[in-house]
Amino acid sequence: MFAMQISNTNPQSFFGLQNFVYIKRILLCVVMCAAGVLLSGCSGSLLSASGPDYKSLMHATDSDQVDFDIIDLSPDTIGPYLLSPTPIRQQMMQSRMLPSIIMPGDILKIEIAETESSPKLFASLSSGGTQFTDVRVTDQGRIDLPYIGSISAQGLTAARLSQKIKKSILQAVPSAQVRVTITTDMSSSVLVSGAIKNPGRYSPLKGPMTLVDVIALAGGATAEPHLINVTVRSPSKVESLSYQNVLYGENRMLDPRSEVILQRNRQSFIAMGAVSTPGLFDMPSSHPSLLQVLGVVGGLQQSTADPSGVFVFRRAGFAEDGKPIALVFRLDMSRPEAIMLASAFQVKPEDALYVTNAGVYQAQKVIAPIIQMIILGNTVTTSN
Known about the structure:
26% of the residues lie in helices and 26% in strands. It is built from nine helices and 16 strands.
């Protein structure tokens, strides 16, 4: 089991008589505790500082507070817990673009030309007419033009404003031709905010925009697609989508004046016990396998882990009496088929991965501090 070789050096000269007697008592306690570990496992409470040991888990199938069963993963039992395929739904996208309505903050380009050979106020049509660029709609919804003055533009389409301007100068310039173009369109723009790199308003001046278009224009999401939820608010409805599903086929046309809000959807799992990097982690994908999750945490601790004690804990609702129900899955990584099973088993958000410690390591956790105390005591004695 555990052996310690003591040299033939006179113990009285090496430790001192009193210390030697004391150390012999400690070693006796070590041997007794080690024997208890190997025989009974000490119920997992004393030796497993990082959680229950293998025997505690395998024999604790009945609890006064939680109902749970341990499911040994095998080719015969893994069926209901296989990876879910990523949903791919192709949709026909139909443009529902409405006419752009002029709003405060819009930038307009207005062209006025006279068809007569002798123009009075504006340039002739043959020369390209008179152009007023960067005409901004004021907060009151009005524009100001030379020879015309202040005109209300808010709520009109570009065509309706062209007619209104032409009517206002009809007496002075009967042959005038007017064309209005919206160069910066606030009314048809889409507001993008939340977990996006460049939030702001984006205008579909070059044609209808899809959800993927506007997110790309805004620089993309700040997290992986499976960690992002997208809310689309249009004048007629509100939709909530998974960004990953949008990229896989659920893209759609955006109505003018829509709002797109990207929110981080924290989906995580926790890893404990004899893994290389315990802690709380983001899910590596929307449907990660146990093998992927083990890769995220760096795998099992080779020196301390019990490969037959890889457990996944999952909440499964409540029983009729109000007691919580849990599913506990066990995978024996020492078996030949373990890698295939781990690559097929789906880990879900809020699952807890726990790897038990090997039996030898459990005993070492008790013995090592005592040995350190012996060495420390020897150092103190020698220094005195």
